[in-house]
Specification:
It is built from four helices and eight strands, in the order βαβββαββαββα. The protein is of the alpha+beta class and 155 residues long. Strands 1, 2, 3, 4, 5, 6, 7 and 8 form an eight-stranded mixed sheet that branches. Helix 2 runs antiparallel to helix 3.
Length: 155
Amino acid sequence: MQGKFKNIFIQGPITHGFIAESIENHCHKKNIGGHSIFLGQVRADEKDEGNVTAIEYTAYEQMALEKAHEIREDIFQKYPLICAHIYHSLGVVKSGQISLFVFTSSEHRKAAFDACEELVERIKAELPVWGKELIEGEKFAWKENISNFNDKYNK
């Protein structure tokens, strides 16, 4: 933990084992009726400069932890959730690997679905995390996060 906020950052890719263990840890909670999971995977986009081979993630960590806590608390106020978890990679994540894992749980599926979607959109729109796309031949380009959060949720 950094400061008083839960650390959401994982160095490198988020592994399938970590995801499976996170799901397994919720089996003892008998009041959960639905989970919703979002996995953000690095794409091998084709750019004019070449193909993306990885993304190198950096963050203003303390600010990002505070913002993630704020977003999570807002989501708990809006939806009847039992659990909500956010994990984001820092460092290099290769194409095909997972860089974002959002996991929500509730008594009924609709709250889990809706909360998970809004969490992802807010993370993309508000968290001070940056991705530098690493392109074949030692080139790079800064990745722009695209979110429809403002269009969908700020009406």
